Amino acid sequence: xxxxxxxxxxxxxxxxxxxxxxxxxxxxxxxxxxxxxxxxxxxxxxxxxxxxxxxxxxxxxxxxxxxxxxxxxxxxxxxxxxxxxxxxxxxxxxxxxxxxxxxxxxxxxxxxxxxxxxxxxxxxxxxxxxxxxxxxxxxxxxxxxxxxxxxxxxxxxxxxxxxxxxxxxxxxxxxxxxxxxxxxxxxxxxxxxxxxxxxxxxxxxxxxxxxxxxxxxxxxxxxxxxxxxxxxxxxxxxxxxxxxxxxxxxxxxxxxxxxxxxxxxxxxxxxxxxxxxxxxxxxxxxxxxxxxxxxxxxxxxxxxxxxxxxxxxxxx
Length: 316
Hints:
Blueprint (H helix, E strand, L loop, with lengths): L1 H13 L3 H14 L1 H13 L4 H24 L9 H24 L2 H8 L2 H12 L6 H18 L11 H20 L5 H25 L13 H27 L2 H4 L6 H13 L5 H24 L7
Helix pairs in contact: 2-11, 2-13, 3-5, 3-11, 3-13, 4-5, 4-10, 4-11, 5-9, 5-10, 6-8, 6-9, 6-13, 7-9, 8-14, 10-11
């Protein structure tokens, strides 16, 4: 058994390309905040509830990925080898997205992201505890430095540390579990199949959440249709970005360890800050730009460490 495990580990390592994984992850992280900007726009200017936006996010994800999946693989494409784990990914992602979209309705994008960035700590701990990823002091230091940069960006206020501040924290925990399952599932299913199944799981979960929330009279779960053509286009874009950007995330986690990729999620704060300024007039202060610089520098340090230790491979 020990010999078999060593051979499997060697085969898994042979398919990894950490530098490519980091490049894909950083690109995906710069794209993904567009979804949250759309969600905030829909809540602010289109008067659509976060629960309804979250439902459309997963519904249109299926609408965008399912035709491609069928065209490439036919009906057998939905015969996932690990269907329940993929559906669970969708439920976790649906719950995390709901909490995040509710948070951005009430709070600035950059602030929500900064609180949310306790997630890399959670993800790194999960990977070290359950997947055996080696996390040395230098990588821990880079993660902490990146987190400090996020805290500079947020410039906390009393309102943020109220009950609403718990929403991004809870979202971070659920999303870290979602990312953990990405790696735990491995290569049993294709990224396209995984995202389609996750879309189904997220849609079913959000349909149930909308039913319960709207029946209780909660304004954050009001059921509605898009009130304009622009709203419909934005919701279609929301589903497309969700489906395809998260395929990139799945691909990245097949190429590099969780603990290595975790700091690159800080890159989301960059586009979140830019979008917050462009769409909602939330102009970044000088201290926020300092925080963004620290976040980027910590990610670049991780890349440098990986290049340095690629031959021979060591713990970083």
